[in-house]
Amino acid sequence: MESQHQAVQNSTAVTEFILLGLSSNPRVQLILFGLFLLIYLVALSGNTLIFLIICIDSRLHNPMYFFLSNLSLVDIGYTSSTVPKMLMNYLSQDKHISLTGCLSQMYFFISFGGIECLLLGVMAYDRYAAICHPLHYHVLMNRKVCIWLAAAAWVLGLANSGVHSGLMSLLSFCRDNIIQHFFCDIPPLFQLSCSDTQVNQITTFVVGGGVIMGSFLVTLVSYAYIVQAILRIRTKEGRLKAFSTCASHLTVVNIYFGTIIFTYIRPNSSYSQEQDRVLPVLYGILTPMLNPIIYSLRNKDVKGALRKAMGS
Fold this sequence. Notes:
mainly alpha; Rhopdopsin 7-helix transmembrane proteins
């Protein structure tokens, strides 16, 4: 009884955490501040520009660009959930974040990450419908269907994060309050908890894994059918044209799913704060910056809309 009482006392002691970031070296921190400030500004401006261009140009009012505009909004929220706090920490000696702030940051990061997974799956299905069923495309992907698919991605992403954040809020933290990471994520918080995290880990694997792997499987199956359809096209020009419509999406998928699956779909015992704090930089910061670049550079419609908006 006495040890249980002591554990309760200790659990109430940790009401804030210290985010160490990617480096404790002051000179390196200044370099990282400049680097991530640049990445953040590029991500914000690029995704805002893509969103506005899609809204303004009527030629881009179709399912593929509707989902891309949703992806741009998600990427703005994705980077904004972690980068501003990280930049503040690099300039300040005070690297504290309250327990409530920590859970809020985790909620928004996981929310936008889940929504991005689901949207990438929906966008893969959209490419499947366009390439494999071109004559029925406007029936399969009519405006109502697109709105429902986008809404489902947002609702499921927010609900998925709500489950993880709710269960995380029930844990006690009494071992340490130092997070060797640049934001509050699920794996490092499991490492710091003095509660039994088995239920949380199972939920992360089943619920979170369901969102990630479900979206990934939809993407894989869609592209399996897409490849079959492309190979049946007789001309080389026709095959290249069909593949070019999904090349940008395929590039983003490879970068995003590879890193996020490795981070969350594995046992907690294999997690290392030192080694794995770099991975979220790839899918949580670099991918949102690269998305508008990839989609604009490899897409004639977007480049044409940008030139038109700039009056050239």
